Amino acid sequence: MKLNFLVVLAFILLSFQCFEDKEKDLVEESKPRTVTFIIEEEEAEMLLPKEEIVKEEIRQETSRVALVDFAKTFIDIPYVYSSQDPKKGFDCSGFVNYVFKNFDIQVPRSSSGFKNFGKPISVDDIALGDVLVFKGYQDSTSIGHVGIVCEANGKNSKFIHASSGKVMKVTISELNSSHYTKRFYQAIDVINQ
Fold first, then answer.
1. How many domains does the chain have?
2. Global pTM?
3. What angle separates helix 50-72 from helix 92-101, to the nearest 10 degrees?
4. More confident position, 52 or 123
5. 94: nearest Cα among 150, 162, 143, 149
6. Are 59 and 126 in a shared domain?
């Protein structure tokens, strides 16, 4: 926005300069004019045309869909504590880490690392590819589980995760189930943090 403002301001100033200096120009036609603008990169903010913004949103949505589709290829891979090897198995954070790493997104390797990581979002704003963070099963004071949203629908969302529960494999669960609702800590966006 600042860049656009500076460009418009420069145009206006140059326009006034041209009208005021018309008489001077006739006398000094042989002198070259240069105008230098210094815009600090940190302050410059380019506004994209609406078409470019829409294209970027489509790319982002496509990458979220691709991320979830990739995660779903591991359904039924066994749960293996402290592993992130699809040939052997995954623990919850190993699974999440492995999926995001495939898309060049760095996330913590341990579930506890998600406590203050990413951009916290409201349950109503959950989107595909967001991470759900849960308290520990027996220790409600610590973070003990994570999963990736694969169906976004507020409190009725579903997530894919490596479960150490009865199924002992990568599976899809519902956020609104009593087991996960009482352990829910927060939803985070790790893609747009």
1. 2
2. 0.70
3. 140
4. 123
5. 162
6. yes
